[in-house]
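sanity check this record:
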Amino acid sequence: MDTPQSADFPTLRVAMRTWLRIGLLSFGGPAAQIALMHREVVEQNRWISDARFLHALNFCMLLPGPEAQQLATYLGWLMHGVRGGIIAGLLFILPGAAVMLALSVLYVTLGTVPLVAALFFGLKCAVLVVVVEALLRLARRALKGRLPWALAVAAFIALFALNLPFPVVVLTAMAIGYALPQAFGGGGGHGDARDGPPALLDAIILQDPERIPRMARRARTAGLVALALWVWPVAMLMGSPPWGDIAWFFSKMAVVTFGGAYAVLAYVAQEAVESYGWLTATDMLAGLGLAESTPGPLILVLQFVGFLAGVTANGLWSGVLASLLVLWVTFAPCFAWIFLGAPFVERLHAEPRLKAALAGVTAAVVGVIASLALWFALRVIFARVETTAFGPLRLDLPDLASLQLDALALSLLAALCLFGLKLGLLRTLGITAAAGFLMRAVLG
C-alpha cells in the first residue's frame, strides 16, 4: 500500500463507499459537486482540513478539464496514494457515464425521456440549495480581509457580467496573491478554521513528514503512465475514420476546457454540428439537458456527442464504442495532470508567496462558484433566460413571465429541509426528488 495510516484514518474500502456516494449524488455541475465533496470529506468526516481542501481546489481550478473530478482524484491520492486517486476519480465519473450512455441509447431509440427528466427535476432544485449553503460556508472561511473579498467580487463580475476568459480571471488572482502575500496572511496555514482537533490527514502528516514525498514518486510514475495511455490510442487511430476524428477532436477538448464544459460548448457545437455533421443543433441541446440532469461532470455532454458520432457512422454499437472512446480521451489526461502536478503543489506549503498566490485563487474561486450558482439558479427557476448587452456588460436576465412556480416551491422545500429541519443531504435530496417527480410526472 502507498501510505500507512493511523487507526482512526478511513480504510480504502471505507473511502470507496464515500467516493461512490459522491459520484451517485454529484448533480448540478462543479459548484454543487465541490460543495458535496467539502461536506463529505471536510465537514462530516474531518478527513481533510478546510485549508488543504482549498489548496487542492485552487490547483484543480488552474487545470483544463472538469475541476470537480480532478479534485476528487487529488483528494483520493492525498488519502490513499495512487490507488486512492484512481478509485476516487473513476467513481466520480462512472455513475454519470453509465447513466449518460443509457440515456443516449434511449434518446436514439425512443426520442426524449420525459420520465427521467421528471425524476431529476426535484434533484436539481435541491442541488441549488446545497450550492448556496456551500457558497456561504466557503466565503465565511476563505475571505478574510478586504483584498480577498474584493477579488471574489471582481471574479464574479468578470465571469458573470463581463464574460472574461476563465484562465485570465484565475491567473490574475494568482498574480495578485503572489505580489501581495501580506494581504493573505502570508499565504495561510493548513490548520482548520474551526476550533477542535486537526483533520485526520493533517495529524498523520505531522507525525510522518516523509509521507507526501514518499507518495510523490509513485504519483509521477502513474502520471506518465496515464499520459502514455492517453496518447497511444489516439496515435493508433489516426487515419481511421471516424475513430481517428473522434479521438483527435475530443483529445483537443481535453486540453482546452478551462473553466468547465460551458467554456467550450459553443466550439464543440459548431465543430460537431457544422464541420463533422455528427448531430444536429437540437441534438446538442438535448445532450446538454441530459448532462445537466445526470450525476457527474457536465463535460459528459461530450460522451453524448461522441455516441451520436458513432451512431451516424456505423449504427448503435459503434455509438457505444465511440462513447467509451470519448470517455477515455477526455479523462485519461485528467489523471495525468493530477498525478504529475499534485506532488509539486504539495511542496508549495512551505513557500509563503506561492501559498499566497493560491490563496488569491481561493478568493477568486468564491466568485467563480457564485457565478456558477447564479447561472444555475436562473435556469432552474426560470424557463427562459436571455443574454442582454449593456455596453461592455453581458448579463443573463430571466424572462419573469417564465417563472417556474414548481421549481421555486421545490427549492424552498429543499431549503426548509436542509436549513430549517436539518434533515441532512440524503433525506433532503430524496424528499425533493420525490416531490419533483410527483409534480412533473403524476400531476403534470
User: Anything to note?
Assistant: The chain has 17 helices and two strands. The longest helix spans residues 67-110. Confidence is low (pLDDT under 50) at residues 187-195. The first strand starts at residue 385 and ends at 390.
